[in-house]
Amino acid sequence: MSEPRTFKVFLADDHPLLRTGLRMSLSRFDDIDFIGDASDGFKAVEKIRQNPPDVALIDVDMPGLSGVAAVRMLRKHYPDMTLLILSSYSDKHYIEEAMLAGANGYVLKSIDINELVDLIRAFARDEHPMSPYLMDLGVDWHAAEPAEEDKQDKEDEAEAFLTRREKQILSCLARGQGNKEISNALFISTETVKTHIKNIFKKLDVKSRLEAVMAAKERNLID
To answer: Taking the model in full, what pTM does it have?
Structure first.
């Protein structure tokens, strides 16, 4: 009787507790071989190239290189690797970006560990699993976009209420810079940086840096 197949799994997430918890949880399963983890996108890409897994679980929003950017880089070199985005957000912009980057799936972090393992197994076997925690990457998001006139109005409105400093900080966020790096680049305190970012989130109606950058690019506020 042949041995059951073992799936090599890699995790990229910037939260230490989540990495530790998932490592311990996944290691309980005999057919899951947890081969490593990383705290940011750059380290994830480097480690995955050194030891390619069957399935890579990648947080959507990480410092430095985002999860979506990491997926985009990895997909060029590993067309057959299963790349699953992990996220706390069900926002369509995140899902669309993951789809365009080449992710196989977009999984909400509220998922139960047993169901996550079932998804890992199914994707690794090239099956098409169903789960309430698995967002649909095949949705035609563009079909639901507003009319061009409405879209331009929103862009003009955002352009008007964002200050010059806020646009500078958005450009820094798009380059993956942290608060300290932005502080040094613009010669302002880190507390001032935090205040500007908070105002940007409020004005763009977003909840994370990645979402702010995506919203700004969508509205042509930054390059």
So the answer is: 0.62
